[in-house]
Amino acid sequence: MDISPILDGFSVVLEPANLLYCLIGVIIGMLIGVLPGLGPGATIAILLPITYGIGPVSAIIMLAGIFYGAQYGGTITSVLLRLPGEASSVVTVFDGFALARQGKAGTALGIAAIGSFIGGTVSILGLTLVAPVVAGFALDFGPPEYAALGVLGVLLISSVGNGNKLKAIVAACVGLLLATVGRDTFTGAERFTFGSLNLAEGIDFIPIAMGLFGLSEILYNLEERHNKVSSPAKVGNVWPSRQDLGQAKGAIGRGSVIGFVLGVLPGGGAVLSSLAAYALEKRRAKNPERFGQGAIEGVAAPETANNAAATSSFIPLLTLGIPANATMALMFGALLIQGIQPGPQLVTEHPDVFWGVINSMYIGNILLLIMSIPMVGVFVKILRIRPAILAPITVLITLLGAYTVNNQVYDIFLVIVFGLLGYLMKKFGFEPGPLVLAFVLGSMIENSARQSLLIFGGDPTGFFSRPISGTVFALVVIVAAWPLIRKALPRRTKELTS
Amino acid sequence: MSMSDPTKPPGDAEPEGLQAETERLLAELEEARPPHAGPISQIGAALVALAVGVFGAVGSYALGLGRLTAPGPGLWPFAVSVVIVVLSAVLVVTGRGLQDTERFSRASLQTVVGVVTLVALAALLPVIGFEIPSLLLMFVWLRWLGKESWRSSIVISIGAVAAFYLLFVVLLQIPLPRLI
Predict the structure, then answer these.
(1) Could you write out the DSSP letters of every residue in A113-147?
(2) Which 21-60 residues of chain A touch chain B by CB within 8 A?
(3) Helix runs in chain B, H state only
(4) Rounded to an integer, what distance in angstroms lies between the CA atom of residue A128 and that of residue A105?
(5) Residue A39 and residue A85 in contact, taking contact as beta carbons nearer than 8 Å
(6) How far apart are CA A13 and CA A131, in angstroms?
(7) CB A104 within 8 A of CB A294
(8) Single pTM value for the model
(9) CA neighbor of A172 nearest in space, from A447, A440, A418
(10) How far is B164 from chain A (nearest CA, A)?
(11) CA atoms A335, A208, A425, A393: torsion sign
């Protein structure tokens, strides 16, 4: 492997200005991510506008910082408030909050930061080795393969969510429909524009993401959801003792591997990996009853694994151009805004960008470790501020931020419309995640499906006669039919046992 | 989600136990959720989705479907709309027993007030600049949505808007419409 592009990438990332952007990204990522109820997706969505005005490389580096900062922000609320920012840090609550109650919140946060750093770094190393290989394999993919992968991606993200699967797929289809608004690239026809000049340009990703992920969370939380939140426990010493580190060592090592491997899976990789890592440590432990009572491994394992998984979920994004989860959909959108099309060509055609993205992850990760430990005290102070004060400030950041993207009030209205839509979707049991992901992939799926039809001379069975698109579509059918299969399975086993 | 592991001794139900524990915690966190809204709102939501699908199907049919050899602009949105129609029709029939909707309560009025302030900000911004609308938004959210005292509502909103002014106008020099 030729390593010179990797090293070139580093020299770009290490420029002082870029380091500063990364540092700012980590800090504001943590600051917003620590707000109760705002997970990494919401945080990145709210902060998208600040990455808009700077050059592509700096923007990616800043995004990497925001990404890691936001992930860690969720950990802080899990440990201190028992409020996980997202599903993948739910397991952290068991032992993290128990430690916090014993006055050892600092130890939990410190070990989580160290575990996240190691897990993330192991995962980036894996990514560095694996990504070019996968991208090389995908290089001769044509439109049919992309159409198939896109459909599979949308379907997977819809079927791994917590809620009702039918509703998730309906939401995803609405996202696909929204992506068609504007001028059709093939025929020039205006679709669903109702004569509006603004809509003729299509709907921008930023207001959709900011509205559905960011503003909708805030509106949803206005209904006094987190009132019972107690003020955070004492933090205590943040530096883990040598004994703590020794105890967590194995958990961090195993968590890194589990996280990396499971994170590549589309959909719930990070959630699954944190559960699996926790379960593995509990099973290996000499006295498993410590788990749930404040076992340091119970924090180290899931936090290492979910950060490793969050990092390796970049693999399908950077090599195939398919985001594996809602947060990756945001990163995908953010890269597209910078004029970067993630996909197999990225590593060969724009090695500087590809390695820039990966190397900025190393830096983001290191800065996270450096910043998190001294700043824990600051975050505890932020958590003491009542949500009532933080909410309007976040709202203003969101609305004024949306304005700054194009200097248009129209964008603020779009954010409000999608914020309201997201709020109503939540009230009625529809998840906004699949909608945003499908919206991001929408035009890619449509364009490649139409190109494929031209290739096949109008014969849709052509998708199944090509080996790779055929296999992927077979997977699509399996995933779509999975709930039915699963329903059938336990019935059979029950019949067998009875 | 399956966590089957071949090395695991048979009969060890621990991962399932963890799964259950996770679900219990999630349920506890959800405790603050208002009660679910019952079959009428389920059917209502499904009907709204159905209407979106019908609207999309009619609109894209009007755009022209073309043929498979030469797809028109409406073919793809039509296909997507048909999926929406079919799935929401299934939801109308089978979804009435789902418990994932939330009842609207008095607390939902807070959200309505919140949205009104947002719309007011967006409408006033180009007319009188961002300072006064932002100040009003901060104040309403603090005083009535957040139940802060008069004094701290006033102090915090002025402080926050001043900080925004410094950040956006002085430091980042973003051309926000403004009074000063």
Answers:
(1) HHHHHHHHHHHHHHHHHHHHHHHHHHTT--HHHHH
(2) none
(3) 14-29, 39-63, 75-94, 108-128, 131-140, 150-164
(4) 34
(5) yes
(6) 19
(7) yes
(8) 0.87
(9) A440
(10) 8
(11) positive
ipTM of the complex in this document: 0.86
Q: Which residues of chain A lie closer than 8 angstroms to B142, CB-CB?
A: 388-389, 392
Which backbone phi and psi does A153 adopt, to 5 degrees? -60, -45
Whether B73 and A186 lie within 8 Å, measured CB to CB: yes
Contact in structure between A160 and A268 (CB atoms under 8 Å): yes
pLDDT tens by residue, A148-189: 988 988 888 777 666 788 999 999 999 999 999 999 988 888
DSSP per-residue letters across A64-97 = HHHHHHHHHHHHHHHHHHS--SSGGGHHHHHHHH
Lookup: tokens for B15: 């991962």
Is the distance from CB of A5 to CB of A46 less than 8 angstroms? Answer: no
- CB-nearest to A219 from B102, B111, B142 is B111
Write out residues 66-85 of B within 8 Å (CB-CB) of A. Answer: 67-77, 80-81, 83-84
Could you tell me the sign of the dihedral formed by the alpha carbons of A142, A145, A148, A153, in that order? negative
Rounded Cα distance, B164 and B170, in Å: 9
For residue A427, list chain B residues with Cβ-Cβ distance below 8 A: 37, 101-102, 104
8 A C-beta contact, residue A34 and residue A83: no
Helix (H) or strand (E) holding A191: strand A190-191
What are the tens digits of pLDDT across the range B40-72? 889 999 999 999 999 999 999 999 998 888 888
